[in-house]
């Protein structure tokens, strides 16, 4: 009887420890989930400000950025012609070290007057300059662009590429001055949703993920190069490291939709 009582006590103790561990794991998991910030509320553009070429910050020209059915959409229903009205929708808070994730898809037809290269083309701009300082007719913010491309139904067309408006990076330990570095992702044709994630470590490593798979990484983002129509404005800051900045979503003439936009702040 004594042996039986001791065995029962040990079993109770083990069950108690197991339950405690499970509870701690659950609490840790819930704490980790709580760290993700929802940048888009699914109802309106609260927290976001448009900057469209030729228009002042905050002017959502032709209702380019709209919210419908819980989805943030880039729409050209009110456009007669795109007329190079490149736009960016900026989130209100700058960040340096973080993970960003969302789902996107391309829909419909390109707006009349859109550039051929802008077919099924959009992007997530990270480490952006402050939109308050952008010039009225500036086409793109100085930034790092995670380029989002949709397949045209025929050709191979990787997504999650890198574009460098007014910037340079190091890729495979070498300085790259070309404007585009292609990722290793596959092509996504049609209107299917694609999941994109970005891991940003200040001015160190930046990684792109498409549907959970790493497709590109590079380092040392800094100011340099052209592709931004601001003349010599940025020359005094040439080679300055980009340690952080704003995040914006792009409108380049093809309708695109975004949802589940979230961010996780990382320790520096």
Characterize the structure shown.
- With 268 residues, the chain is mainly beta.
- The chain folds into 2 domains: 1-34; 37-265, Exo-inulinase, domain 1 (Jelly Rolls).
- The protein has 1 helix and 17 strands.
- Strands 1, 3, 4, 6, 10, 11, 13, 14, 15 and 17 form a 10-stranded antiparallel sheet that branches.
- The termini are far apart.
Radius of gyration: 23 Å
Class by helix and strand content? mainly beta
Spatial gap, N to C terminus: 59 Å
The CATH superfamily of the largest domain is identified as Exo-inulinase, domain 1
Largest sheet: 10 strands, antiparallel
Summed up, the helix count is: 1
Defining traits:
268 residues; Jelly Rolls; ten-stranded antiparallel β-sheet; seven-stranded antiparallel β-sheet; 12% helix; globular; AL/BT2_dom; hydrolase activity
List the helices and strands and how they pair.
Elements lengths: L1 H33 L1 E3 L9 E5 L12 E4 L2 E4 L12 E5 L5 E10 L14 E8 L15 E6 L11 E3 L3 E5 L2 E3 L3 E2 L12 E8 L3 E6 L2 E11 L22 E6 L4 E10 L3
Antiparallel strand pairs: 1-17, 2-5, 3-4, 4-17, 5-16, 6-13, 6-17, 7-8, 7-16, 8-9, 9-12, 10-11, 10-15, 13-14, 14-15
Summarize the structure.
By secondary structure, the chain is mainly beta. The chain contains one helix and 17 strands.
